[in-house]
Amino acid sequence: MFRVNEVLHFDAEKYRVLKLLQDHLVWIKVEDEDEVSFPSLVLQNELEAAIIDETLTRIDDPYEELSYLSPEQGTAAYVKRESNYQLIKPLVSAPDFYDPKVRSHIIQAIIKEKGSTKQTLYRLARRYWQRGQTPNALLPDYKNSGGKGKKRHSSGKKLGRPREYTPGVGAIVDAEVEKLFRIAIDRYVLNEKKRSFPAAHRKFKTLYENYFPDTPESEIPSQWQMMHFFKREYDQVEKIQKQATRIEFNKDIRPLSATANTQVLGPGSRFEIDATIADIYLVSDSDRGNIVGRPTVYLVIDVFSRMIAGFYVGFEDASYVAAMQALAMSMTDKVELCRQFGFEITTDDWPVVGVPDAILADRGELLGYQIESLERNFSVRIENTPPYRGDAKGIVERSFRSLQADFKPYAPGVVQGTTVKKRGGKNYRLDGKITITEFTEIILASILYHNQFHALEKYDRDSDIPSDLPMTPLSLWQWGVQHRTGRLRVVPEDALRVSLLPRTKATFSELGVCVFGVYYTSGEILKEGWLHRSSEVVRPETMDAAYDPRIADCIYLFPKQNTTKYWICNLTQRSRQFAGCSFWDVWQVTEQQKKTLAHSKLEADKKKRELEDLIEKKIKSAISLAPGSDHRSNAEKLSAIGENHRREKEAERQRTGYLPETKKKESAQVIPMTESAEDYSFPDHIDELFDEDD
C-alpha cells in the first residue's frame, strides 16, 4: 500500500515514509525544521482510512532534484557530503533509528568517538530523513547562497566591494541609472550593428552626463555595473533575437523544429530547385583567350533520396528561363544528355523520369503565369519559400558546397577572398582556363558520383528504413519506389517542355505572326487565310505563344485557349536575319536598332528644319522677285501656259543636251560566237520574285 520514501499530504502537512513495519510505518514531517522534529510511528490502518476519506494524498517529492546532482570528486560540496554522511551513518543505518532511546544511545557514541555536537548530528539526521534518505540529501544548499539573479537594494550606500585603486567611491545604481542603462543597451548593444560593450558604455557616459551634469568621471556608473545589470535583466534568447535582423534570425539562428524528410512520403514527393553563381571563372569555347566570367548553376534535388534530378550550367542569370531548362532535364530521360558529354549510362543509373508531386523554389523563379500550365496540366504543386529564407531549401543549398568542393582544389580561376591576394599577387580572374563545356562535364561527373556512390552520413532515417540499406541516393530512391508511395508520373516529353517554356502575346498582320518584332508563319496560318492582303480577311489580334529563349527559329502558337495544343511557326523571309540566333540576340539587335533609329530621327529632324527654312527663304525670294501686274488679262495668261511650257522644254533641251565630239575611229574586228557558246545575258528572276509560299 505504502512505499518507502514516498511523500504524503495529510492534515495540511507533508510527510515522508521512512520505513514500513508490520502494522505501522515510520514517517517524518518534510518541511518542519524544528529541533523536535523526529521520526514517529503511525498505524497503517489509520492512513488507509484517511485515503478513503480523501484526507490523505500522495504528492510529488519536493526534493526530487537531489537525485540528479552529482558533484565532482574533490569539490567542497563532494567533501561535505561524504564527511556528513560518514558522521551520521551509524545512526541512519540502525534498524531502530525511530526509537528515541536507541537514537540517543547512538548519538552519544558518535559524540564520544568523533567529537561532534548533538545539535549538528540531529540537524544532519533530520536533513537526511526529510530529503529522501540518500547521501545527496546532505549536500550543502549552495544554490541559496548569494541570491544569484536577484536584485540588491541599497540603503544609501554603494553595494559591492569597495574600490582599491580607482579614485572615488562609485555610483549607486538606482531606478534612474537602470533606466539609462536600459536605454544605452537597447540602443547600442541589442541591435543589428552589434557595437562592443565598452563602446556602448561610453555612449552611456555621455547620456549620464547630460542627465546628471557636473558629475565627476569617477562617480559615473562603471562598465562592470552596466554589465551586471545587462546579465541580470536580459536573458539569452532576448539578446540573440535583438542582435540579429529578423531575416538573419529566421534563416541562420532560430532553432530547427523538424527535418525535410518528415515532410515527404517517398521519391518524387518534393523537388527542391535553387541556383548559385559558381566560384570559378571560365573561358569561351570558341576562343580560350576570352574570359567569359562565372557561370550560373541550377540544381534540382529530390528531398527523400537526395538524388540530383536535373541541373543547368550556363551564363543565364538566375531566372525562370534558366530554371525551366533545369526542370525540363529533371523530368526527362538523361541517357542521351550524358552521351553527348561522353558518359554512357542506363536509365537505371539515373532513374528520375517524370513529374513530382511538388516543387519548392524561390519566389522569383517559379512565381507567375508561366508556371501555371505545369500546375494545371500535370498536377504539380508549386511551393514558394518566404523572402530571404534560403534555409527552407537546405538540402539543395548544401549540395552546392559539395559539388564545388570537388573541383575547387584543382581548377584554375577559382574565386578567392580578394582579387589580388597580396602585393605583386595575381588576379585569380586571369587564371581561368576551363571552358563552359568542360565545366559542364565536371559538374555532370560529380552529379553521377553523388547519385550512385555518395554516402549520406547525416541522413535522418525513418524507422522502417532497413539498417543494412546503403545510404546512397540511388539506393534510397530504389528502396523508396518499392516501399513508399512516392513515384514520379510519366508525361509526354514534348508537352512537358512546351508547358515549361515562357509565354508571351503574339500579334497578327499580313506580314505574319509577330513576337518581339520577329515574324513567323506556318502551314496552319496560311490555311486559315490570315496572311492574305484583303480587307475581307478577319484575323485574331493576339494569341498566346511559347518561345525557347535559346533559339529564335521557331515559336509555339496556341490557337485555342485552355488547351496546350500548339502550332509550330517558323521564321519568314522578312526576319531571315535572325535565323540561328537566340532571343537574347534578337532583343540585343532590336534594342540597338531602336537606338540607331532614335539617333537617325534626331539627325533627320535637324535636317528637316534646315530644309523647311531653305524652302521658306526660296519662296519668299520668289515672291519678292515676281513682276507686278501687267496689261494681260487672266484668260490670256492661262491660254499662254501651253506655249510657255513648249519654249521652256526647248530651252532645257538646249541647255542640258550632250553633243559628243566626233573622231575618226577604226572599225573593230567582229568575232562571231559559235552555237555552243554560253548565254551571258542578264538572268530573269521574275518567276522567283512572284513565287508563292508553299
CATH class of the largest domain: Alpha Beta
Main sheet attributes: strand count, strand direction, barrel closure:
6 strands, antiparallel, barrel
What is the count of helical runs? 21
Approximately how much helix is present in the residues? 25-40%
Approximate strand percentage: 5-15%
Structural class: alpha+beta
> How many strand elements?
18
Q: CATH H-level name of the largest domain... which superfamily?
A: Ribonuclease H-like superfamily/Ribonuclease H
* CATH fold-level name of the largest domain: Nucleotidyltransferase, domain 5
Task: Describe the strand arrangement of the main beta sheet, using strand numbers.
Answer: 13-14-15-18-17-16
The structural domain count equals 4
CATH architecture of the largest domain: 2-Layer Sandwich
Low-confidence stretches: none
Radius of gyration: 48 Å
* Mean pLDDT over the full residue set: 81
Give the overall form. Answer: elongated
Amino- and carboxy-terminal Cα gap? 104 Å
